[in-house]
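pls design
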């Protein structure tokens, strides 16, 4: 357990800092330095974030790698982060995370792993979106189960780019919740491995966008 007392600042300072249990933040958490990652790992129990403190906006990354999941106390102040990664487990009270910090920022969500498949969970509700001019980037990567799009998609359902890379041929990515548009002029849609099921929805590559 980590307890950050009132008036204190806990600086990640460009490191991946891994936690097995709980954080009680009654001071300030600063994860703004490049490569800073607040990383929740498996310690055999669910993890919790609570306290009356704040965080310096935006944290670089909020990473979940705990099969038992992570819960944010609904009483905490919203935590602004540039990126959410879900390797294993899920997040309860996801609305306490704000993805993006307006202005020229980009909000990024990664679900799964680039190499070994992981048992990725999901966000229980939509985070607060404050996407800047960089928009939103989502990567659906290698997991132990097929995926369906969910609360990780912003309400406009417009993405700067999207990647799907799952090398298990029995898996598919199902587009749910309405049409989904990708719009970057560089790499809007990267379909590396796997099958996408649109059903009654459309996966739209906007005019001038690129695919790989």
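designed seq:
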């Amino acid at each position: 357990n980590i307890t950050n007392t009132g008036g204190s600042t806990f600086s990640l300072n460009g490191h991946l800092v891994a936690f097995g249990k709980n954080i009680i933040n009654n001071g300030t958490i600063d994860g703004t330095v490049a490569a800073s990652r607040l990383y929740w790992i498996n310690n055999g129990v669910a993890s919790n974030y609570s306290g009356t403190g704040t965080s310096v906006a935006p944290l670089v990354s909020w990473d979940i790698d705990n099969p038992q999941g992570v819960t944010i106390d609904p009483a905490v102040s919203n935590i602004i982060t540039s990126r959410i990664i879900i390797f294993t487990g899920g997040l309860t009270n996801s609305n306490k995370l704000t993805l993006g910090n307006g202005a020229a920022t980009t909000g990024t969500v990664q679900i799964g792993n680039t190499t070994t498949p992981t048992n990725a969970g999901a966000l229980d509700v939509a985070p607060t979106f404050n996407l800047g001019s960089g928009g939103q980037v989502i990567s659906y990567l290698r997991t132990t189960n097929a995926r369906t799009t969910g609360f990780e998609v912003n309400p406009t359902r417009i993405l700067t780019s999207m990647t799907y890379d799952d090398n298990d041929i029995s898996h598919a990515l199902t587009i749910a919740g309405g049409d989904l548009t990708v719009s970057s002029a560089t790499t809007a849609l990267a379909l590396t491995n796997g099958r996408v099921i649109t059903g009654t929805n459309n996966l739209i590559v906007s005019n001038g966008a690129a695919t790989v």
